[in-house]
Structure to design on (510 residues):
C-alpha cells in the first residue's frame, strides 16, 4: 500500500521480489535525483510546451513514467528542499524560509535524510549544484577561507560540490567537500547580509558595473561577474564563478562522480540552477530560444539532463539506474532582473494549465514535473495521474533499498515507491504544501482547501497571484483544475472536513 508508515515497510528481499514480479528490477539500482530550480509544469515539451523543446527530458519521459499530479511541499526553494531531503514538512520548524547565503545549516546532523537512507544501504552518495539549505553550524559565522564545520557530509553525503545558496545570493563560489573550490589566498572571502563593506561598490551605487544583467527589483548589492546580487561579499578572486559556466561546472563534477563510481551503487542529488535568476546561460545556448534568456536557460537544463544520461550510457549504467527528475517549486518570470522573460514569453504558459506560480498557494506554485526513468525491461505505464508528493522520497527510497528509517524520523513521509515505479496508480491520501507566507493548503485527488491567511492578492513585483485570502477557499479540482471558482460557500461540510484534516496534520506529534 502506498500510504503505510515507513516503519512498516517490507524488507529488501520482499520489496525487490514485488518489483520483479512486474518486470526486471536491478537488485541494487543506482538512483539519481535531478532537481530543477523554478522549472514550471508547463516548461517542458513533454508536458505540452510548444515554444521550447526539451528532447533530452522528453527521452527520459518516454523511457519512464511522466506524472501529471505531482507536488512539492512548498512554493519556494529552501522549505521545498528541506521536505524532500528530510521527509518532514517545513512548517514544523522555524527557520525553513528562503535562506540567506550565510545561513547556518538548516537540516541538522541529528535528522535522518534521504542521503542517510542510501548511505545505510551501502551506496556512495553525492550532492551537486544548488544547495540553499545553509552551511556551517551557525549563521554568519562561517569560515569561508578555511573548512566549514558543518556540511552535507554531516547529512549522509560522502561528496559534495555545491553552491552555498543560489546564484543571486553571495557567496558566489562553489564549495567542494567543505572548502571553497579554487580558493584564492590573495582574495580572502568575507560575507555578510546586514550591512555593506566600506568602500566596496554596489549595484545600487555603481550601475556601470552591471555589464551582463541589470536588476529590476532587489539584487542591488554586491556585483559579481557584472551582475548584482543579494547580500554583501568581499574577495573571492579566482574562486568566483562565472554565471555562464555554472551549469558546466555542476555537470562536469556530476559526470566525474558517475565515472568514478561505476563499479558500485551510488546515489546522486543533482540540483541545477538554470531557470532561477540570474539567468545567464552559456554562449552555446544564446539566441536559440524565442523566449530569450529564460528559454535558453530551459535549453541549458535539458542539456544537463542529456549529459548525465550520456554518461550513464557510456559507462553501461543506463540499464541499472533509476533517474527521478522534478522541480523544487513552480515558475516565475520577472524575479528581479531585466531579462525580458515576461515580454518574450508570448503564449507560453510556464505553469501549464494551473493558476499562480512560485511563492503562491495556488496549484502552479506546487504542481511540478515529475518523471521517473526506469531501467530497461521494467514494465510500466508511460503516464500516471496518481497523486504523489516529494515528501515521500525518504520513505519510498528506504523501501526500495530495504533500509529501516529510525523511529521519529521522516515522520511525514510515506512509502509510495510502487506508485513511482509504475506498479500501481494508488493516489496518496493527501498532499500538503506551504506558500511564501507559511500558510498551508491541502488537497486530495478531488478537492483542494487553502486556509485563510493575510497578505497581498498579487505579489506586486512578480505579477503572480498569491492565493492569500481571509476567507477559506475550496476548489473541486476534478471539475475546476484551474482553481477559478471558490466553492467553499456551497460545500461547508467539505470545508470543515478538509480544515480538520489539515489541522490533524499540523498538530501531529511525532
Amino acid at each position: 500500500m502506498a500510504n503505510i508508515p515507513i516503519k512498516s515497510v517490507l524488507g529488501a528481499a520482499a520489496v525487490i521480489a514485488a518489483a520483479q514480479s512486474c518486470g526486471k528490477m536491478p537488485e541494487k539500482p543506482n538512483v539519481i535525483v535531478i532537481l530543477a530550480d523554478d522549472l514550471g509544469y508547463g516548461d517542458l515539451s513533454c508536458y505540452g510546451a510548444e515554444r521550447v523543446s526539451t528532447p533530452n527530458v522528453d527521452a527520459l519521459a518516454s523511457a519512464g513514467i511522466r506524472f501529471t499530479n505531482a507536488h512539492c511541499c512548498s512554493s519556494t526553494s529552501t522549505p521545498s528542499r528541506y521536505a524532500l531531503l528530510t521527509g518532514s514538512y517545513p512548517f514544523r520548524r522555524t527557520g525553513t524560509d528562503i535562506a540567506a547565503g550565510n545561513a547556518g545549516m538548516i537540516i541538522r546532523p541529528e535528522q535522518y535524510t534521504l542521503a542517510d537512507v542510501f548511505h545505510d544501504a551501502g551506496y556512495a552518495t553525492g550532492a551537486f549544484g544548488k544547495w540553499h539549505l545553509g552551511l556551517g553550524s551557525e549563521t554568519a559565522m562561517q569560515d569561508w577561507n578555511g573548512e566549514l564545520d558543518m556540511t552535507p557530509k554531516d547529512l549522509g553525503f560522502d561528496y559534495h560540490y555545491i553552491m552555498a545558496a543560489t546564484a543571486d545570493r553571495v557567496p558566489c563560489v562553489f564549495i567542494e567537500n567543505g572548502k571553497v573550490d579554487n580558493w584564492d589566498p590573495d582574495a580572502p572571502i568575507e560575507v555578510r547580509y546586514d550591512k555593506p563593506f566600506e568602500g566596496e561598490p554596489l549595484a545600487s551605487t555603481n550601475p556601470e558595473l552591471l555589464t551582463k544583467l541589470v536588476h529590476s527589483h532587489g539584487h542591488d548589492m554586491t556585483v559579481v561577474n557584472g551582475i548584482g546580487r543579494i547580500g554583501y561579499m568581499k574577495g573571492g578572486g579566482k574562486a568566483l564563478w562565472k554565471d555562464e559556466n555554472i551549469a558546466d561546472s555542476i555537470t562536469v563534477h556530476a559526470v566525474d562522480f558517475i565515472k568514478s563510481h561505476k563499479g558500485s551503487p551510488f546515489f546522486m542529488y543533482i540540483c541545477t540552477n538554470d531557470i532561477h535568476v540570474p539567468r545567464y546561460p552559456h554562449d552555446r545556448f544564446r539566441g536559440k530560444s524565442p523566449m530569450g534568456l529564460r528559454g535558453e536557460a530551459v535549453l541549458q537544463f535539458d542539456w544537463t539532463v542529456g549529459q548525465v544520461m550520456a554518461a550513464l550510457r557510456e559507462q553501461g549504467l543506463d540499464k541499472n539506474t533509476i533517474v527521478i527528475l522534478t522541480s523544487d517549486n513552480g515558475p516565475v518570470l520577472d524575479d528581479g532582473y531585466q531579462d525580458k522573460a515576461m515580454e518574450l514569453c508570448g503564449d507560453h504558459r510556464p505553469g501549464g494549465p494551473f493558476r499562480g506560480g512560485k511563492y503562491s498557494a495556488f496549484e502552479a506554485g506546487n504542481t511540478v514535473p515529475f518523471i521517473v526513468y526506469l531501467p530497461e525491461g521494467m514494465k510500466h505505464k508511460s503516464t500516471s495521474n496518481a497523486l504523489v508528493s516529494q515528501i515521500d522520497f525518504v520513505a519510498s527510497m528506504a523501501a526500495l533499498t530495504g533500509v529501516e528509517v529510525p523511529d521519529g524520523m521522516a515522520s511525514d513521509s510515506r512509502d509510495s515507491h510502487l506508485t513511482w515505479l509504475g506498479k500501481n496508480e494508488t493516489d496518496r491520501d493527501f498532499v500538503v504544501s506551504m506558500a511564501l507566507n507559511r500558510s498551508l493548503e491541502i488537497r486530495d485527488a478531488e478537492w483542494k482547501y487553502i486556509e485563510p491567511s493575510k497578505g497581498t492578492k498579487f505579489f506586486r513585483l512578480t505579477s503572480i497571484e498569491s492565493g492569500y485570502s481571509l476567507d477559506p477557499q475550496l476548489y473541486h479540482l476534478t471539475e475546476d483544475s484551474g482553481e477559478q471558482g471558490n466553492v467553499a460557500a456551497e460545500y461547508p461540510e467539505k470545508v470543515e472536513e478538509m480544515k480538520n484534516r489539515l489541522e490533524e496534520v499540523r498538530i501531529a506529534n511525532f
